[in-house]
Design goal:
alpha+beta; elongated; about 20% strand; two-stranded antiparallel ribbon
């Protein structure tokens, strides 16, 4: 049986060049499905990676109770002082709490690529912010001076927006602020905006409340101690999350949106590819009716016929997968993407990982198998006498 399957399959594959026109329909259809799905999956995974990279298990973020994010949260000065005095918070070298009370504003700037306006976050931080977020490094220029209208810009934002280089001035609500440095923080979400002195930014915007307090824990195990102390304090109404959990929750909404888009777009394109494969494979079986009947008449079993049709579908699907994955890799791998609205943007690079490419191959094989299964069964069930009489 194995010899028969091998012989019929080899004969079938050798005839593919004579059917290049119809076979290319499957290849093109599957290549399109793979390219689109891989681009959507890469966008989703890369966005999640950039957002999740912002969080650390040894940090916690404190928001007003019921707030879903920083922009919907407000914490008054008295609450900030109480939060910073809570147990479980690490200390800086000078013995102060490793905590930063952040106020987040936004500014609309022009993108370099298309001169379109997009939001950019301006984060006002406390003096201890680098002790809380040690991944932040000044790579060019210098740190802002407390009390002055100075900004440092993230490396991702620098590459994406106009007029944010060192020495440039950015117009905020009360006047112009000078960019004095460039920082990097591991290509996370913070790197897609500005940072500045928190009290100066609060004064400029005439605000008396911050949005959040981020603290570095004594250890990851100290989180429960901190959470219990803050949530049971009758003078506070706050929620406490590990920073990793907070940013994972923040990324879920975007993941859901792109996931729905991927399901609908990929689903419709996948159905189209399956129907194209079905049509092409049925045409191939019809064109080889006498050939199949002759093989059956001289003793070849139905299994060889089924295997030959399925293998043809799978081979064409694999070719389509390679073409689609190559297109996705060449067009999207390493591309810089800017997603956001008037409140802020996140800039990240799309990455086509080996796992994603393998997923594309698996999806293509599934389409090829489904598209070849019914024609293969039809070929195997074709009555020999009827097929031999076919013109």
């Amino acid at each position: 049986m194995l010899k028969q399957i091998t012989s019929v399959t080899e004969m079938n594959l050798r005839s593919l060049p004579r059917r290049i026109g119809s076979s290319s329909v499957i290849v093109v259809g599957i290549a399109g499905v793979v390219a689109v799905l891989l681009s959507i999956f890469a966008l989703t995974r890369s966005l999640s990676g950039a957002v999740l990279a912002t969080g650390s298990p040894d940090r916690a973020i404190v928001l007003r109770a019921g707030a879903t994010g920083e922009f919907s949260s407000t914490l008054l000065v008295d609450a900030v002082a109480t939060i910073k005095d809570a147990p479980g918070i690490a200390r800086t070298d000078d013995g102060k709490p490793a905590a930063t009370a952040d106020f987040v504003a936004a500014v609309n700037l022009l993108r370099k690529e298309d001169a379109a306006r997009a939001g950019l976050a301006v984060r006002g931080v406390d003096a201890a912010f680098m002790a809380v977020r040690p991944e932040i490094k000044i790579v060019s220029g210098r740190l802002f001076t407390p009390g002055l209208r100075e900004l440092i810009v993230g490396r991702s934002a620098l590459g994406e927006f106009q007029n944010v280089a060192i020495g440039d001035e950015v117009l905020l609500r009360d006047g112009r602020w000078t960019v004095v440095g460039v920082f990097e923080s591991g290509a996370d979400a913070n790197e897609s905006g500005f940072m500045t002195d928190g009290p100066t930014l609060l004064s400029a915007y005439q605000r008396t409340a911050v949005n959040s307090v981020t603290v570095r824990l004594d250890s990851p195990d100290a989180f429960e101690t901190l959470k219990t102390a803050l949530t049971t304090n009758p003078t506070l109404s706050v929620s406490v999350e590990r920073e990793t959990d907070f940013y994972r929750r923040q990324s879920q909404e975007a993941n859901q949106i792109f996931g729905i888009v991927g399901i609908f777009v990929g689903g419709f394109m996948g159905l189209g590819a399956i129907f194209a494969a079905l049509n092409t494979m049925y045409s191939a079986v019809s064109a080889r009716t006498r050939e199949i009947a002759t093989l059956r008449a001289i003793g070849f079993g139905a299994s060889g016929v089924v295997a030959s049709v399925l293998v043809e579908g799978m081979v064409l699907a694999l070719i389509g997968a390679v073409v689609g994955a190559s297109i996705a890799w060449l067009l999207f791998n390493g591309n810089t993407v800017n997603l956001g609205d008037s409140t802020g943007s996140i800039v990240f690079k799309m990455q086509m990982t080996p796992a994603l490419l393998m997923l594309g191959v698996v999806l293509a094989c599934a389409v090829g198998f489904v598209g070849g299964l019914l024609p293969a069964v039809r070929a195997a069930r074709l009555p020999v006498a009827t097929a031999l009489r076919a013109v």
